[in-house]
Hints:
The complex is a heterodimer of chains A (373) and B (514).
Chain A: E1 3-12, E2 20-28, E3 32-36, H1 43-51, E4 58-63, E5 66-70, E6 73-74, E7 82-85, H2 97-102, H3 109-115, H4 119-127, H5 143-155, E8 161-165, H6 173-190, E9 193-198, H7 201-207, E10 210-215, E11 218-223, H8 225-230, H9 235-241, E12 245-252, E13 265-270, E14 273-279, E15 291-296, E16 301-316, E17 320-327, E18 343-349, E19 359-364, E20 368-371
Parallel strand pairs in A: 3-9, 3-10, 7-8, 8-9, 14-20
Antiparallel strand pairs in A: 1-2, 1-4, 4-5, 5-6, 10-11, 12-13, 12-15, 13-14, 15-20, 16-17, 16-19, 17-18
Chain B: H1 12-36, H2 41-48, H3 52-84, E1 85-86, H4 90-98, H5 105-115, H6 121-147, H7 151-158, H8 163-192, H9 195-199, H10 205-214, H11 219-244, H12 247-251, E2 263-264, H13 271-295, H14 298-303, H15 306-340, H16 344-354, H17 361-375, H18 383-393, H19 395-408, H20 411-419, H21 424-453, H22 456-461, H23 469-478, H24 482-510
Parallel strand pairs in B: 1-2
Amino acid sequence: MTAFLSITDLTVGYGATPVLRGITLDVSDADFTAIVGPSGCGKTTLLRTIAGLERATSGDMRLGTQMLTTHGIHLAPHKRNIGWVPQDASLFPHLNVAENIAFGLATSLRRVKKAARSNRVAELLELVSLTAFGLRMPHELSGGQAQRVALARALANRPQLVLLDEPFAGLDPILRSDLRSEVKAILARAQTAALLVTHDQTEALSLASHVALMHDGIIEQAGSPLDVYSSPATVWCAEFLGDANVLHATTVQGESDPNGLNGPHDSALSALGITPMTWMEGGTQPVPGELVSLMVRPESLSLVTGQGWRVTETSFAGHDGLVTLVADTKTPLAARSHTTVPVLQVLVAARQMPLIGANYDVKLTAPALGYAP
Amino acid sequence: MPRTVANQRLPRPLVAVAAVAALVAVIPVGYLLVRAFAEGGESFLSLLERPRLPLLIGNSLGLAITVTFSALAIGLPSAFLLSRVRIPLRAFWMVIAALPLAVPSYLAAYGLLAAFPTMQGFAAAWLVLTMVTVPYITLPVASALQSATTDFEDVARTLGRSPFSALLSGSWHNVRTPALAGSLLVFLYVISDFGGVALFRFPVLTTAIYQAYGASYDRNLAAVLSLILITLAIIIVFGERLARGKARTRNVSRLTVGRTRISDLHPRLTPLFAVLSFPAFAVVVIPVTVMLLRMFSAEALASLDPARLWSATVNTLILSLGGALVAVALATPIALLAARYGGRLVGAIESAGYLPLALPGVVVGLSLVFFALGTAPALYQTTFLLALAYGFMFLPKAIGGIRSRVAAIPSSLNDVSRTLGYTPLQSWRSVTGPLSRPGFLLGGLLVMVTAMKELPATLMLRPTGMDTLATLLWSRTDVASYGAAAPYALMLIVLAAIPAFLLSQSDRRGGSPL
């Protein structure tokens, strides 16, 4: 994979806590990349910096063969040919749909109005399935239609890259998932690399071929959706991308790998008993007896007959449900040494939802992941 | 979504142009200072010891304070009636509430004097100025109450408050800011007013400045009195800022959250209609009726000079249009900067642009006389200088009109056009410019409508022999020939009503695209 957009050690903002700190990110030209993070993590600033709307304090940025930012020199936004779809679509209220799409094909209103009748605009209207809407004004469009027009407008100049800033955030959930797949298809047809910013993990995981997790101005992890979900680099990544049980544990002398799974292996003693552990942090393996944090996804656990854990809460979600259990105090366990009573969340199929107050044992179906405490 | 990112850079050319515009707006005051201290500190101090000075200051302040309170007393209940009660013909009552705005104080005073020739002194000035300034309270408070939620009131009711007490506790935080801002405008109107108080022969600072300048040509005294007047105005402007404090930023964005409940018209509320319509009755209906009656008396018709009326009308239009152009030209860079950027420098430039709010017409007139005589005597008593004076005086109106419009345009539109290959200038021409056009029109019209009615600066700066409707009206009232002045007064009202009508139309259409 050759990097198409290449960002090296990018910092934006001044002072002790810049908005973005040392961002390094490579995007290949075939990719649909998603940058996902909680609000306020700096992801929109990163997008605006790539578009040239904010200036980096230091670092380099290259798109294809073109330097965007290097040594404090910045290419002006109008020379970058990067499409930008802002969060609220931001259609020009004084222009109709066709003129909005044609906006990038000229640089004066007179020529834009002429270009609105060109084949390119007709082609783009068809691309976003809005052929009949060319003469509508922006306030006559629904939220989803407005976003599609904004996308067509960004694609008109055949940009090298399209930036999408939370384009689905303001829409209702059903429309949102329809529009997601539609946008993905449109971008594939236009054969344009795209960079999406979102705070919605599901959106990022389902839409993108490459996901970068952003937290407090830095990129915590980047990789394929499966990679970042199943092998989160940090506890924060694990908790941000989905439900996660994080348990106190102590490493124990490694036994032979009972499940035959790959990776650097060890075992840990936690509220789940002695379980195999995959060590996720770089550097040396922890020595036996060291304190670690153990992360297990609720779907990596299952309920079996037993008395060790008591159901305290169930939350039914239709196809499946999340069960919350606490370690039953009547059962002596090694984990009693910890001050807090361990709590677990387990994902079960809908028809197996247990009753509150029932007792079970919990079995691990995939290795737990180990992190520094 | 306005974004404040740490490394947001101010566009240097725009800052430079705006700074020059702000400096131009400050020049008159600078000249006034120079003039007041020109003869050295001793003479300045000796002027301050004039025996009449405490009386003048006391009269100006006393009148301004009493008028502000009486305007609040009429304006607040009127605003409540207009915004929170289901009343028949609401649009009509809105017009009635706004009507006194169309009448300058001297015109109202003149009309009332024609009806009741014995009116004079403090009471008469207080009455007329109150009635003329009530809309400055009623209109902003009504619009705030209209968009504010009544949920707080409902909560207060469920917590055991009486309807009136719930209204006070639930809506006060919404009313506070517009009521304070309105009070500031009323106060500044009163201490700047010249025509109204002069007609009722009530001695205040403005009339004393005019006398010192005109009758005795004691220009140093005029400069010193002007400085005192400006100082009072600036103290009040800062006082209002302090009182407004944090309330301004806290609730603005949340005004529209929640429901606004409109109550039915309770019979006990009917006296409020009298309160609401009294100002319009006192300063519009009575004066206009009396003028119409006087005008059609034989003597008045005989003395009517159509050619003079026509030339005065044309002069009024040209001068106010010139003033509007000057104001918009100066306001544009300041308003663009203030609408898009923040920070100390931008704040200072914007404040300089709003400084003329605290400059009474007499003071601007006087300082431009000094300025012209001191730097370019050829400018003295030219049309250009008078248009310049209008431009200075009403600069804040132009800034307000343009600024609010530009600020309403999302900055993301500009960002989008930049990513689509437009340079900053091309973006301005294709996006911000066309979208903010109504703001320029609004600002210009506001300036025009106000400049037409301006009296003291016009009297001081107009070229010899050039008459406007306001000055002709003024010279007729001096000799108490009410019938002869009536045509000019009526023409002035009609002329001022046209841009006001355009304003209400553009307002109605302007809302749609954004």
